[in-house]
Structure formats: structure tokens, C-alpha cells
Amino acid sequence: MSRKGWALFALVGLLWGVPYLFMKVAVEELATPVIVFSRLIIGAAVLVPLAIFQKSIKHAMKYWKYIALYAVLEMVIPWTLITNAQRDLSSGVVALLVATVPIWATLFAHHSGDTTAAHRTRVIGIAIGLIGIAFLVGIESLNDVDSAIALFQVLVAALSYAWAVNMITRKAPDASGVAINGIALAISSVIFAPFAFTHLPEQAPSTEAIWSTIGLGVICTAIAFWVFFIVLDEIGAARASLVVYPNTAVAVLLGIVLLNEEITLAIMIGLPLVLIGSYFASRRPTTPIIAG
What we know:
The protein is an all-alpha fold. It has 14 helices and no strands. The chain has helices at about 5-15, 20-25, 30-55, 55-60, 65-85, 90-100, 100-110, 120-140, 145-170, 175-195, 205-235, 235-240, 245-260, 265-280. α3 packs antiparallel against α10 (about 175-195) and α7 crosses α9. It is globular and about 50 Å long. It starts with a helix and ends in an 11-residue tail after the last helix.
């Protein structure tokens, strides 16, 4: 990988590791619909004009039905659940559970007919990752019922992320990623608009909450998606998908340093198992596929 590739990869890892910090700050004062809508509308305001400038939006609109479904699965459902979950979980735990996306994506790929998903290395990775999830969920669930519900919400969000990518990759393989996500953000913002306006805060939120919400939209959505697709062109999809690992490390580190979150037993056990499992689950086979 070139220096440019490494730099872009690291930048995306930072940009998508920061949202957990921003959400943790914003949820203290703002309702989930307000936070999510703000993120959506800001992201759409950047990516839709960019897609128009690239002349890729017209072709992508041919797949609008699949993009609408993608919007629900990639943005509406997971962003709502993850934002809600951050009221009861540390940003590190949330990021760690989201890092299981490659595991679920591999399982969905196998279900969709991808025979490489049954490769021995990937199966071992899935097993390790699931053990890590079991430890993480089991230990964190001991805290209280709210923690258990929040953990379940993040796992559903991770499953939704994985299914969304699997679906749109198959249904709109030749459409621009910038156009797909720009359209999806716009659709999602329309869905969320009425909920956001009925949940506006009764008093003016703090500067920290406002800037955290703006940061989610500008930095973690608009800029992050834009840079990610540049990374895709620079280093390819296989390597770009590994960005989930620095994302998690950044989220855990920021939570500890800036939010004074503890390094819990769940993180110490779950972090290495989930990351190792996700890494091997996302590996491409180099040996013959396991016969079924």
C-alpha cells in the first residue's frame, strides 16, 4: 500500500472512530431523532451535490428501490439503535459490538451463495468472534436490564449494517458509492424529519452538544463517506473493509481518555477476540474451499 493509501486508511479509521464520542456527548441533552436527523441532513447536503458533480446520481437512481431499503437498513435502523444504546453503554463497548459487522457479513454472504464464505479460515474467525461477543454481552449484561437491552440494540444494528452492504452490493453493483449513500441519506432524512421536529429540546442545548451533533454530520458522515470512497479506489474493497479495526481502537481510546470510561473486563476479553475473529472472518481464501 502506498503512503497515500496508508494515510487515507488511517484518516477513515479516525473519522469513523470519533462518532461514538460525539454521540455519547449529544445524547445527554438531545433526543435520538434530533441527533440522527441532523447527521442525515448534513451528510446529504454534501454527498448529493458531490454525486451530481460526478454525474453519477442519475445512474444510481435506477436502483432507487434498493437504495431506499439500503437507507433503512444502513442508516435509519442502526443509527437509531446505536444512538439509543449510548445512553446505557460506554462508547468503547458500542464500537466493539459494531466491529462484529464483518462476522455477520460473512454469514450473510454464505447465505447469499458466496461459497468462499465457508472457507476454513473464515469459519474459525466467525467462531472466535462469536465467543468474544458471548463474553462481552454476558459480562456487560450483568450490570442491569437497560445494559442488556442496549447491547441487543447494537447487535441488531451490526446485523442491519451487514445485511445492507450485502444487499446493495448484489442489487446495485455498478452504481457509485457516493451516489448511493447521498440518495440514502436524503431518503433517511425525509423519514426522520417529522420525528426530529416533534422531539426538539425545550431549552437550548449546550455548546458541546451542538458541536458534537454538527461533528457527527460533517466529520463522521459527509467527510467520512467521501474519504472512504477515495480509499476504495486507492486500495480496493478488501483492504478498505479492514478499517473497522482502527475505528474500534480509536473509539475505545477516546472513550478512556476524553470521557473517563473504564477499561472493563468485558473490553479486555471481548476486544481481542472480536477483532481477531472479524479479521479472519473477512479474509479471502488462499486454500481450497471446505466441501460441504
